[in-house]
């Protein structure tokens, strides 16, 4: 026996070293294995790059790191060929009665209905009811794009960039047949088109623009909202009206890049769960009021008085903090950067009701989310998956970094003006009309 192997200490040390390396390797790769589990059948991804950007465009700059090292709710993906056939067949066999929508003209795109008028639509979901659902002002796009939008009859992936606020990023991991039944549409304004033109990504000689898989739809924002973020809410929540023949949709904030095939996501997060909508829970907050306070604290919306009025209106009309009585909803605050939808009656009504609240107040959709979800009857079926899953299916980037630009979309200029909330002199404790909400929230959260 070699002298080297006679040393018991050396053998034990080598054994522990080898064991430690194996454990370290397993721990390093465990998050992705535990969060996203593929079956053994071929995944069949598209291997060639979808589009080559000029180096000056910098589409992969400023990616944000992820910090979660475990996953409490793994997602199991079926094999790609069977998923494709199932979704394709479902889109072909789809039968659903469409909703009727209010027509006419108004001062705003959404109609700016009173609180009483909006509340009246939460508890009447008959087919004969005409729901207010935007488009009380023109949403102007060219005829070429409109024909393509109406012709999208399967899955549509939608995003938007207004004010040249983000980069266009190509999805990764697409299956070889996904584009046969999936459309990718990016809504942009003139400012965004100008930025793309400066990088030679589009040509003004054509009326139709396409970058990789994304078809660009130029929207005339004249007569819409002054806030670019609010204009982005139109395709975000009224996707079922812009694409009336689509059966499924995925909203992707322009700050995100999909890294998993959209058909696999729809199959695993929507159809297998038997729900109308799939959306991630917020990484930090559970109660709506927590999000409202963070919105003002971090200056995500500068009109604090407006936020106060909105929350007090919701409290008066039944908003309560999250508790176990709201299960199977696991939180009142979602991360709305990624939304997967089945375009059925329940989801379409929810989207209309959501848009009406955003039109009445502001684009901060997390503030209205639980109010609409809990108040509508019958309830929408929803899969609120864990944040760890979201971090595995998308990459998140910072918005375009520009010198001298305001960080708040509510004030696009350089001057920052905060409208502070007025004190409620009728409430001794300062909690106003939401006193019951806070008392219940603090008791539940043990603050």
TrEMBL record:
TOD1/MUCI70 glycosyltransferase-like domain segment(s): 105-399
GO molecular function terms listed in the Swiss-Prot or TrEMBL record: N-acylsphingosine amidohydrolase activity
Gene Ontology biological process terms, A to Z: intracellular water homeostasis; pollen tube growth; regulation of stomatal opening; response to abscisic acid; stomatal movement
Taxonomy, superkingdom: Eukaryota
GO CC annotations, alphabetized: Golgi apparatus; pollen tube
Entries under Pfam families matching the protein: TOD1_MUCI70
Residue ranges of coiled coil: none
Protein name: TOD1/MUCI70 glycosyltransferase-like domain-containing protein
